[in-house]
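User: Hey, my collaborator sent me this sequence without any context and asked if I could get a structure. I don't really work with proteins. Can you help?
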Amino acid sequence: MHAAVITGQHRLEIIEVPEPVPSPGGIVVDITLCGICGTDIHAYQSGAHYNPAICGHEWVGTVSAAGTGVRNVAEGDRVVVAVPPPCGRCAACRAGQAGHCSIVFLAATGRDVHDSRHGGFAPRLSVNADRVVRAHASLSDTQAAQVEPATVAFHAVRRSGIRLGDLAVVQGAGPIGLTTMQWVKAAGAGQVIVIEPSMQRQSLARSLGATFVVAPGAEAEALVREQTNGLGADIVYECVGRAPAIQAAVGLARRGGSMCLIGLSDTDASITPGVWLVKEIMVTASLAYTHEEFDLAMGMIADGRMQLDPLHSSTVSLASLGDALADLAGGSSTQTKVLVNPSS
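Assistant: No problem. I've predicted the 3D structure and written it out in structure-token form, which is a compact way to encode the shape of the chain:
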């Protein structure tokens, strides 16, 4: 069997791997679709070490084999990738902080001892059964393959402390920014301003319900001042994942406002601490999600509060994955969410 892994800067390799078999407590999943994540793109751009187990971590598939002791799913179930429930045994869990379970963190970052040599850019994958959740029956495969990134944004908005009526700014209208924007609206924001340079993504943000959409820079700053009578935004969500955007996000917030860091920059960022201090900025940062949030997010996708179909721009084969990554990493792609069919 062949799997695709990112092995260096602008380098994707198709490697030969053994056919997966289920271990005790484990399953084999036949991958239907796997999304290309922003972290995949950043790893391809930078060449920084990238754990192969998370090279392709947004997938939906069907359980084709189950090992001994598996009770939560059965052969034939359609499932989406998740993180396991809290272990209940690590230091964080024993301290009553199950939301920061060490075992869940290792799984989210591709460092679990049971992880395979590759991720979902492969026809089949072996995982622990507690790493999956049954896909909501009403979701299409295209929607189900986007549940993982939608849950990333869901977790971030839940952590952010947004309040009814807040004026929120979302920096970036990629897949994470567009799902964040929709969760922010579902959480009761009064207005949502999306900042995005791409005209195509600007149009998509408008169609999905953004109150205003504007290019970054002076135009965005002027719009936020105008809509807030000079105060600044109540909360700003940083979804770009570029170092300069972090200080820019704080610059748009009002005194006593908040900034939620979601986008992951692969370089250090320069900030102006005096601005943060004078503004008394409250900062939340968000990584991944919890196991139970998958069911919560899927329910809201199923009832229409989150639209994922408009984000899906194309589906490519495993053989075309390298070209798709190169296009997405080039900075001028017209794609939004690219899915991979690893069996085609």
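In plain terms: The mean pLDDT is 95. You can pass these tokens on to your collaborator as they are.
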